[in-house]
Task: inverse folding
């Protein structure tokens, strides 16, 4: 029994070490990024690796249209979905998941109707498991990362916590990127205003 317990302890230690390494690497990767699309792509890759998944989809949330817009899709072994947007208006369960703003996981058989379009694997089997991870900026839903994997079991609590931690990192990086963009655009505006003002003053001086 002690040998089995020791083996389990070693396995848990290695898993936690891998989780910590993933979080640290994600933090490092995101620390210098200021493009929102790049931030979302990077964190989606880390989430996919953390869940040992086949891939991911990234959606942008458009609250005024009650619609998710597909930004990126990368699922190994699956055909391109062909979707561009997913309406949430008539999907009460998906709307509830978005409102709860927490990591949602589920397993779908080929006969089930999933919350988001099912992947089409090469063997035409649409059975899959998924994790839906909301990305918030200033407490507002901004994007959604869908993690897709073929094994027929939901993520455990540790894996869900890891996805939440990565989502929080993405939120911080996106907020920093937006602050930088707003500051840069404001500086550009005032610089342009100063140039126009100088040009006007120069013209008035020449006319007097």
Result:
């Amino acid at each position: 029994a002690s040998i089995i317990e020791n083996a389990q302890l070693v396995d848990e230690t290695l898993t936690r070490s891998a989780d910590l390494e993933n979080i640290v690497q994600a933090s490092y990767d995101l620390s210098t990024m200021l493009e929102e699309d790049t931030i979302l792509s990077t964190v989606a890759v880390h989430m996919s690796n953390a869940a040992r998944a086949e891939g991911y989809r990234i959606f942008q949330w458009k609250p005024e249209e009650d619609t998710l817009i597909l930004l990126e899709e990368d699922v190994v072994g699956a055909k391109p979905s062909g979707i561009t947007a997913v309406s949430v208006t008539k999907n009460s369960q998906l709307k509830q998941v978005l409102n709860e703003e927490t990591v949602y996981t589920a397993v779908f058989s080929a006969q089930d109707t999933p919350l988001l379009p099912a992947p089409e694997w090469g063997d035409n089997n649409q059975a899959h498991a998924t994790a839906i991870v909301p990305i918030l900026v200033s407490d507002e839903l901004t994007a959604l990362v869908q993690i897709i994997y073929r094994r027929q079991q939901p993520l455990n609590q540790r894996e869900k916590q890891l996805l939440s931690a990565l989502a929080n990192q993405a939120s911080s990086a996106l907020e920093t990127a937006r602050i930088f963009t707003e500051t840069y655009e404001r500086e550009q505006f005032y610089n342009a205003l100063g140039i126009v003002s100088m040009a006007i003053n120069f013209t008035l001086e020449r006319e007097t």
Q: What stands out?
A: The two ends are 98 Å apart (CA to CA). The chain has four helices and eight strands.
